[in-house]
Amino acid sequence: NQWIPENDLMKEAPKLLANFKKKLKQEKVFKWNPDWADLCRIIGKKVTMPPKRPGAGRGRGSGYVPNRCVEWCVKWKGLGYEHCTWEPGDTDALIS
């Protein structure tokens, strides 16, 4: 996925952009709510192993990383429980 500027989209897919703008005027497209980026509560926690580096074995100097990663199940403000996500422990929303 990548962000495409509107000018580029107008050149590549003008009909798609026109349809989107038409739906936006009819309010059939959801607008972003900044509250959705705010943490409401933490639902759960899981501990996982970090990904190994390519070619990693278990020997010393092989790239094996013994540390564990913590992920948190987060409920976001203004969204239902079906929209909860697993977030790494170092996510900005969890740190602040």
Key terms:
96 residues; single chain; 3-stranded antiparallel beta sheet; 24% helix; alpha+beta; 3 helices
Neighbour order of strands in the largest sheet? 1-2-3
Note the beta-strand portion. Answer: 15-25%
Based on CA atoms alone, the radius of gyration comes out at: 21 Å
N-to-C SSE series? HHEEEH
The helicity comes to 10-25%
The termini sit apart by 27 Å
* Overall average pLDDT: 81
Shape: flat
How many alpha or pi helices? Answer: 3
| Number of E-type strands | 3
The description of the largest β-sheet is: 3 strands, antiparallel
Structural class: alpha+beta
Low-confidence stretches: none
Secondary structure: elements and pairs:
Elements: H1 6-12, H2 14-25, E1 39-48, E2 69-76, E3 85-88, H3 92-95
Antiparallel strand pairs: 1-2, 2-3
Helix pairs in contact: 1-2
Structure overview:
By secondary structure, the chain is an alpha+beta fold. It has helices at residues 6-12, 14-25, 92-95; strands spanning 39-48, 69-76, 85-88. The protein has a three-stranded antiparallel sheet, with no helix packed on it. Helix 1 crosses helix 2. The radius of gyration is 21 Å and the shape is flat. The mean pLDDT is 81.
Short description:
The protein has 96 residues and is an alpha+beta fold.
